[in-house]
Amino acid sequence: MDRFATPLKHTRQNPQIGDAAQRVITKADFAKACEEIGHWLGYEPTPLVSLSGLAKQLGVGEIHYKDEGPRFGLGSFKALGGSYAAMRVLQRELTKRLGHPVSLQDIRARNHPQAAEITLVSATDGNHGRSLAWGCQRFGVPCRIYIHAEVSEGRAQAMRDLGATVIRINGDYDASVVQAKEEAEANGWFVVSDTSWPGYTDPPRDVMAGYGMMTREVCEALPQPPTHVFLQGGVGGLAASVAAGLRQFYGAVSPRVVIVEPDLAACLFDSARAGQATAFAIQEETIMAGLSCGEPSEMAWEILAEEAVDFLTIPDHLIPPTIRLLANQESGDPKIEAGESAVAGLAAIIAAMQSPEMAQTLDLGPQSRVLLIGSEGVTDPEIFAAIMGGKDV
Q1: pTM assigned to the model
Q2: CATH topology for the 2-77+204-388 domain
């Protein structure tokens, strides 16, 4: 494990006292999303894998890894959020246009051909756009996806294969968000984003509600509450959804929330230091493509300001050996083929356990039961093959 002996950057906040975990995404929001997603063709819970061999090596009690690679054949947890939010946008707009209530079942059954007149758009690093494209294909509506300069061609082609029009821009993820918004406003299209901004909250709330299916599966599978959950950063939607879902399920014994980000895109880390949602100026793209976000979701931050305790940043060079560790079964655990963003939390806990001081800071030890969200499988086979062939960054 010497290759993981890297100092981690850590900050801690004293969480605010409030009800954001109950209010921003309500129990009813989660329940409605879970009810709908449970009816989708091909739905089944994804594996919750016990990494008992690695836990023993590291000196922690348990590590459970929620492997989202098999989710609906799309390779990531995003399949739950983008497609569900698309349904809700269509439901609201068709109800408005037709003058009578339209159900989610109607959307799913394509009962209203008028849906084909509604164009849905979004910016993405890959997985959210793929989920939206999949949903649009299922519901019979046009889809436009905006990607930034560093999104791999493999991820772009996966969206084209699902019928989306893909527009590549010069600039980073946040620039693609701006262009998607501007062109949608100019053309009467509808943005389905996983990040919120002033005046735009319904679709990102629906995205996070869709992620609740994943959290529900975890809670139903675990025999007792985790003591810690390590959650990837990005705009914060995944972390906020899981943190809220765990709080609603476990109440006062909900796990300690640790946020993990690339040191090249640490908007939530900086937000914790500043005590408010704060932008991070990305100078270089991280290998963790799905986490390359400089602008936090204000809605997600509202939850994380109350639920997250610790914030860590990790360097890119930890990611390839973590991917190989899982795929090569180095600790004798079940084989997992994971994407770059999926292993951020695992890389962080391995590195933290190489430092007695950091382990103590995070209160990690033999009694710890750690939950990790393996947010994606192999969403770009070429990148995965290069990493497995020995390429580090």
Answers
A1: 0.94
A2: Rossmann fold (3.40.50)
